[in-house]
Amino acid sequence: MTANPVPFVLLAKDIVQLPAMRAEPAPRTESPGAAMASHWQEYAIEAALLGVFMLLACLFTVLLFHPASPVRWLVPDPFFRRVLMGLAMGSTAVGLIYSGWGKQSGAHFNPAVTLTFARLGRIAPRDAAAYVMAQFLGAVLGVLAAMLLAGRLVADASVRYAVTVPGPAGPGVAFAAEVLISFILMTVVLEVSSHPRFGRLTGLCAGLLVATFIALEAPLSGMSMNPARTVGSAVWAHHWTALWIYFAAPLLGMLGAAELHLLRRGPQPDACAKLHHQNEKRCIFCEHRMAQGTSRGPAAL
């Protein structure tokens, strides 16, 4: 999840810009090891993006929910505080997706998203594995950065390192809720990104869903949709309650969305794994598709 995320108002020009024409990348001929080594920047970016996201998640949780925070007293209603949290993290997600780093790596910052794109054949298996490892590392380091900045405030019982745990309704409801929101998110990402006119709005749609889910679904499961995000908090909180939910449910929901997408639209040979594709950054996903002989050019993302 380094610079602070760009607010919505500064992103308007980038979001609505017309798609730029880009030259087709030449097929890669180097060995798998050399190709993987040449993609280290994307791997590092994925770690940094989720690190920033987790850092801000912890700091916003302190700001909105710690008893010593004036915001908690100014906004006593928990629901409205969740709305504010949703707006904060939704805008963070949008800022990261449309940032220069997000444009280069594709801004997955979620192992479930990366593995879903791998299932669709949009990312090489070796790159998917490296992305997943980087995402877990970034999440752990992001919470560590929050601890260094906010100290004991992050460890307070009202914050608990921004852990995600099942709500009062129990693990079963939490699991079902995580499956549902993960399915909705990936369905929207795949459908919007496949549209030639609205593909550039994929990141904005994803951010709006993050904001909505935090406000409405968080009491059920803590609103994770992201195994690395959950582990990043759990490592420092030593809180592993129902960890299986946050691994199984996002994967089940997103892979289910991918299977439905394949049934409806087929493999889409031009599709890419970037949430924002129309930019000047290189694309390791299109390189992979060209090397496989399955892409005719960049997707309308």
Give a description of the structure:
The protein is mostly helical. The chain has a single domain (30-291), classed as Up-down Bundle (Glycerol uptake facilitator protein). The chain contains 15 helices and no strands. Helix 8 runs parallel beside helix 13 (227-237). The chain starts with 7 loop residues before the first helix and ends in a 10-residue tail after the last helix. The model is unreliable at 1-29 and 295-301 (pLDDT under 50).
Largest sheet: none
CATH fold field value = Glycerol uptake facilitator protein
Number of helices: 15
Work out the count of structural domains: 1
What is the CATH level 1 assignment? Answer: Mainly Alpha
Query: How far is the first residue's CA from the last residue's CA?
Result: 20 Å
CATH-defined superfamily: Glycerol uptake facilitator protein
Percent in helix: 55-70%
**Which sequence of SSEs, written as H and E, runs from N to C?**
HHHHHHHHHHHHHHH
The secondary-structure class comes to mainly alpha
Cα-atom Rg, whole angstroms? 19 Å
SSE inventory with pairings:
Layout: H1 8-16, H2 32-38, H3 40-65, H4 70-74, H5 78-97, H6 100-105, H7 111-119, H8 125-150, H9 152-155, H10 171-193, H11 202-216, H12 218-221, H13 227-237, H14 243-265, H15 284-291
